[in-house]
C-alpha cells in the first residue's frame, strides 16, 4: 500500500478544531469530547475538551470511556465480514441457511448483504422490552417471528437495534463452540487489536472512567432523549446490543480504524484479507436514499441525498449535501456515526483519520452538521 509521505498537516489550521469544539462546549451545545486525528497512522492531535460530567464539574480526560452508540455496529459488521473472509458464508448467503427459523413471513430471501446494507426490511426500533432487546438470542427469536416492514432487498431501511443482533447470532452459530458473542468478539477482534478499553456491555473495570450520557438538545429526532440516556447509562453487564451499546475510548477505536486503513492488518496481525478489506469500504447502494433521514425532509426541509452505504460503513460519495465526513472529504472517505454524539471516518486518499466521542448529545441532524464543520477543519489542515 502506498502511503502519502510528502503531504503535511498544518498545525495552526488543525488547532482550529479543538477551538471549535470548545466554543460548542462554552455555548452548552455539548458537554465535552475527546477528538483524535491521525495522518498516515500517526496521531497528530489527541485532545480532551470540556467536561466529562458538567454537573459535577469533572474535566474531560483523553482516556475517558464513552458509550459507543452506533459506532459498535462497525465491530459487528466486521465480525460478519470475517465469516465471509473465512469462506463460512458469502454475502449472497440467505440468512435462513444459518438461522433456519428466519425463513418465515416473507423473509426467506434475505441475504447477508441485505443485513449489512440495511436492506433487510427490518423495523427501526421494535416495541420490545429491554430484556429482549439486550439479549441476542431472544431478539433473534422475536425478529424471526416478525413480518418485515419492507420487502427484503428492495430499499434501504435503517434498523437501529435489530440487524446487528441477527449478524451476531450468525457469528455465534457459525462458531459452533457454545461460546457467547462477547467471547468471540473479544478473541477474534478486540484482543488482537489490543482494544483493552472496549466492551460490548457495561464492565465494572471501566466504570471509574465512564462518561455519563446526557442529551442537551431535546428536540424531537430519530430517538427519544430519555431512551438514549437510559441506553447510554446502563450498568447491566448482561445487556448486550451489538447495534448500539458498548463502551470504548478514542485510542481504542482508532486501533479499529487502522484495521481497514491498513487493509486488514495491524501490528503484523492480519485479521482480514486485503481484498475483503477493500471490498468492504466500497459504496454498494448507488443513488438510493437512506430512509433514516426521511424525517429531516419535514423537520429541516432537507433534500433527499444518497445513502452511499458499503458492506461495512457509510461512504462520503460525491455531491453537495449535508454530510458528517465534510464537504472537503475525498469521495472514498468511509466511516460511521453514533446517535447525536460520536463519529469517525478515514479518508484513504489522504490517509487521514478522525475519531470523535462526546457527551451532551445533539439532535441527530444537528450532530451530523456539527461533524461536517469539524471534519472540514481537519481536511483543510491537510497540505499536499
TrEMBL record:
Residues 19-363 form the Beta-lactamase-related domain. It comes from the Bacteria. InterPro entries: Beta-lactam-related, Beta-lactam/transpept-like, Diverse_Enzym_Activities. Transmembrane segments: none annotated. Gene3D superfamilies: DD-peptidase/beta-lactamase superfamily. SUPFAM superfamilies: beta-lactamase/transpeptidase-like (SSF56601). It holds the Pfam family Beta-lactamase. This is Beta-lactamase family protein.
Amino acid at each position: 500500500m502506498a502511503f502519502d509521505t510528502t503531504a503535511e498537516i498544518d498545525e495552526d489550521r488543525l488547532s482550529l478544531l479543538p477551538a471549535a469544539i470548545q466554543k460548542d462546549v462554552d455555548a452548552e451545545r455539548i458537554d465535552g469530547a475527546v477528538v483524535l486525528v491521525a495522518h498516515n497512522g500517526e496521531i497528530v492531535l489527541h485532545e480532551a475538551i470540556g467536561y466529562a460530567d458538567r454537573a459535577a464539574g469533572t474535566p474531560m480526560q483523553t482516556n475517558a470511556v464513552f458509550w459507543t452508540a452506533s459506532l459498535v455496529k462497525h465491530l459487528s459488521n466486521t465480525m460478519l465480514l470475517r465469516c465471509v473472509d473465512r469462506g463460512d458464508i458469502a454475502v449472497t448467503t440467505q440468512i435462513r441457511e444459518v438461522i433456519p427459523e428466519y425463513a418465515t413471513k416473507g423473509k426467506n430471501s434475505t441475504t447477508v448483504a441485505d443485513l449489512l446494507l440495511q436492506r433487510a426490511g427490518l423495523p427501526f426500533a421494535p416495541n420490545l422490552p429491554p430484556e429482549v432487546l439486550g439479549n441476542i438470542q431472544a431478539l433473534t427469536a422475536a425478529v424471526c417471528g416478525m413480518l418485515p416492514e419492507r420487502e427484503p432487498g428492495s430499499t434501504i431501511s435503517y434498523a437501529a437495534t435489530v440487524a446487528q443482533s441477527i449478524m451476531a447470532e450468525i457469528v455465534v452459530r457459525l462458531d459452533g463452540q457454545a461460546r457467547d458473542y462477547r467471547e468471540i468478539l473479544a478473541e477474534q477482534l478486540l484482543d488482537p487489536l489490543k482494544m483493552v478499553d472496549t466492551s460490548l456491555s457495561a464492565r465494572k473495570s471501566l466504570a471509574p472512567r465512564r462518561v455519563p450520557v446526557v442529551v442537551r438538545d431535546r428536540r424531537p429526532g430519530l430517538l427519544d432523549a430519555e431512551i438514549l440516556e437510559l441506553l447510554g447509562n446502563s450498568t447491566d453487564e448482561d445487556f448486550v446490543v451489538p447495534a448500539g451499546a458498548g463502551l470504548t475510548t478514542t485510542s481504542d477505536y482508532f486501533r479499529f480504524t487502522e484495521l481497514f486503513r491498513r487493509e486488514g492488518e495491524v501490528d503484523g496481525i492480519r485479521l482480514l484479507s486485503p481484498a475483503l478489506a477493500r471490498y468492504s469500504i466500497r459504496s454498494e447502494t448507488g443513488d438510493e436514499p437512506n430512509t433514516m433521514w426521511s424525517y429531516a425532509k419535514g423537520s429541516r426541509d432537507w433534500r433527499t441525498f444518497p445513502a452511499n452505504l458499503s458492506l461495512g460503513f457509510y461512504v462520503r460519495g460525491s455531491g453537495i449535501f449535508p454530510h458528517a465526513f465534510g464537504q472537503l472529504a475525498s469521495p472514498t472517505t468511509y466511516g460511521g456515526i453514533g446517535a447525536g454524539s460520536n463519529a469517525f471516518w478515514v479518508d484513504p486518499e489522504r490517509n487521514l483519520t478522525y475519531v470523535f466521542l462526546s457527551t451532551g448529545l445533539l439532535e441527530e441532524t444537528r450532530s451530523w452538521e456539527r461533524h461536517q464543520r469539524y471534519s472540514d477543519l481537519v481536511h483543510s489542515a491537510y497540505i499536499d
